[in-house]
Write a structure and sequence with these properties.
This protein has about 325 residues and is α+β, with helices and mostly antiparallel strands. The protein folds into two domains: about 100 residues, Phosphorylase Kinase, domain 1 (2-Layer Sandwich); about 210 residues, Aminoglycoside phosphotransferase (APH), C-terminal lobe (Aminoglycoside 3'-phosphotransferase, Chain: A, domain 2, Alpha-Beta Complex). The strands form three sheets. Strands 1-2-3-5-4 form a five-stranded antiparallel sheet. A two-stranded antiparallel ribbon has the order 6-9. It is globular, with a radius of gyration of 20 Å.
């Protein structure tokens, strides 16, 4: 029996049985995700890689992640049910356990497979409703960042590369001119997009991967799912490649979201989202270029910065 198997059995005992059918899932870029059963019930373990927590500039940490997911679930937002957190005696490192949900997370399937044909027309409104409930979460101590601070943070990161990308330069200056007036800041998911959403035949099941949750402008979550890179080539449908912004906003307002959040505000955050993702792509290419991460995946993602440049040009021209 491996150390991990023994540790998982110890954890399963807290759930009333022995761990069965344990397997590591491919999802989750920064944390390990495991599926297992206990006494006929399905669970998901999310823990630090190898059981060792790694520092991250933006991630809130697994303990805080579990706290915000619990708060979201309690608020009626589509979120997993966290049933326990790992303890030192579990020998699994930082992490938590959720009840396993059924659904699909692969964007290509959600956007194209016949199994989700009935879900796609209602997803944008459901996303708006979900975001209204997420943004109503209170009482969780999270980092706060507004539009100006976020733009400044990514400009500083971009400048650190000492590279000439005229489109990024132009977009930074244009975004500075377009910063919207302040609104009350809310609890945000922080990475609300296909890939982090579980969908079934009826629509949205749950928002996953809460590690970037923070306090910010509510339109940030909306702009992120509208960012062209997260439309997965279905550019004609602004919301995630499946819906319209007005439907998302209608759902948001119907579920109690701030009526001050409008399409113009979402457009600003969509453009900032493309800039952010483009700079993230540069970060990944720099990791490949310097040998910090020599994987082909890093080089391939780094190449996508050019896609963001095209998207930014089209958005500045009002064509996307």
């Amino acid at each position: 029996m491996s150390d991990f198997t023994a540790a998982l059995d110890k954890l399963a005992a807290r759930l009333g049985g022995a761990a069965e059918n344990a397997r590591r899932l491919s999802g989750g870029a920064s944390q390990e995700t495991w599926s297992f059963d206990v006494a006929g019930e399905g669970y998901i373990l999310r823990r630090a890689p190898g059981g060792v927590a790694m520092a991250s500039a933006n991630a809130i940490g697994l303990a805080k992640e579990a706290e915000v997911i619990r708060a979201a679930h309690k608020a009626g937002a589509p979120a997993p049910d966290v049933v326990l957190e790992c303890e030192e005696g579990d020998s699994l490192g930082p992490g938590y356990v959720m009840r396993r949900l059924a659904g699909e997370t692969i964007a290509r399937k959600i956007l194209r497979d016949a199994a989700f044909a009935q879900a796609r027309p209602v997803l944008a409104r459901q996303c708006g409703e979900a975001l209204a409930r997420i943004h109503a979460i209170d009482g969780v101590d999270l980092p706060s960042v507004d539009a100006g601070e976020q733009l400044a943070r990514y400009e500083e990161l971009y400048r650190s590369f000492e590279t000439d990308r005229p489109i990024f330069e132009l977009a930074i200056q244009e975004l500075k001119k377009r910063i919207p007036p302040p609104v009350p800041l809310k609890t945000l998911h922080g990475d609300f997009r296909l890939g982090n959403l579980m969908i079934d035949a009826n629509g949205l099941v749950a928002a996953l991967d809460w590690e970037l949750a923070h306090i910010g402008d509510p339109a940030e979550d909306m702009g992120w799912i509208c960012t062209p890179s997260w439309r997965f080539s279905e550019f004609q449908n602004p919301v995630g490649g499946f819906g319209e912004v007005e439907d998302m906003l209608a759902g948001y307002r119907a579920a109690g979201g701030d009526p001050a959040i409008d399409e113009a505000r979402v457009r600003f955050w969509t453009m900032l989202g493309s800039l952010k993702w483009g700079i993230m792509c540069l970060t990944m290419y720099r990791a490949y270029e310097t040998g910090m991460d020599a994987s082909v995946e890093r080089a391939a993602i780094g190449r996508r910065a050019s896609e963001c440049e095209l998207d930014l040009v089209l958005m500045m021209q009002g064509k996307l």
